[in-house]
């Protein structure tokens, strides 16, 4: 099966739109269940840019993923992790290398 960059890009845009619509889903919850979060996506995006010879800072990559500066998004949508989330995150780190 041939992979299409256009299809992959469309799927990625849909993932970003889905995450944007689900701001209630916290990064720590994504990390616990999936082993990745919005910050991981930003890191992967930045790494892909670097591999393509393009300079992109961590903050620029996060703004592309979050749709606004990360500090603003975090202040609006990311409460402190609960003790239960932190415990689940610690346990998940052992499952997700």
Termini gap: 29 Å
Proportion of residues in β-strands: under 5%
Please, how many domains?
A: 1
User: What is the CATH homologous superfamily assignment?
Assistant: SMc04008-like
CATH architecture: Orthogonal Bundle
What does the radius of gyration come to?
A: 15 Å
| Top-tier CATH class | Mainly Alpha
Mean pLDDT: 94
What sort of overall outline do the alpha carbons produce when their principal axes are compared? globular
User: Could you list the spans in which at least 5 consecutive residues all have pLDDT below 50?
Assistant: none
CATH topology: SMc04008-like fold
Tell me roughly what share of residues is in helical segments: over 70%
Number of extended strands? 0
Structural class: mainly alpha
Q: What's the story with the biggest beta sheet?
A: none
Number of helical stretches of at least 4 residues: 6
What pattern of helices and strands is seen along the backbone? HHHHHH
Explain the layout of strands and helices.
Elements lengths: L4 H17 L5 H8 L3 H14 L6 H9 L3 H8 L5 H13 L2
Helix pairs in contact: 2-6, 3-4
Protein name: SMc04008-like domain-containing protein
Organism: Arenimonas oryziterrae DSM 21050 = YC6267
Pfam families: DUF1244 (PF06844)
Description of the structure:
InterPro entries: SMc04008-like_domain, SMc04008-like_sf. With 97 residues, this protein is an all-alpha fold. It has one domain: SMc04008-like fold (Orthogonal Bundle). Helix content is 71%, strand content 0%. The protein is globular, with a radius of gyration of 15 Å.
């Amino acid at each position: 099966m041939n992979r299409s960059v256009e299809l992959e890009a469309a799927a990625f845009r849909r993932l970003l739109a889905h995450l944007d619509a689900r701001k209630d889903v916290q990064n720590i919850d994504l990390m616990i269940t999936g082993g990745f979060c919005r910050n991981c996506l930003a890191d992967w995006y930045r790494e892909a840019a670097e591999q393509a010879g393009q300079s992109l800072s961590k903050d620029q990559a996060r703004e592309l993923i979050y749709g606004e500066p990360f500090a603003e998004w975090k202040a609006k949508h990311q409460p402190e992790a609960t003790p239960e989330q932190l415990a689940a995150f610690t346990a998940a780190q052992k499952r997700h290398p």
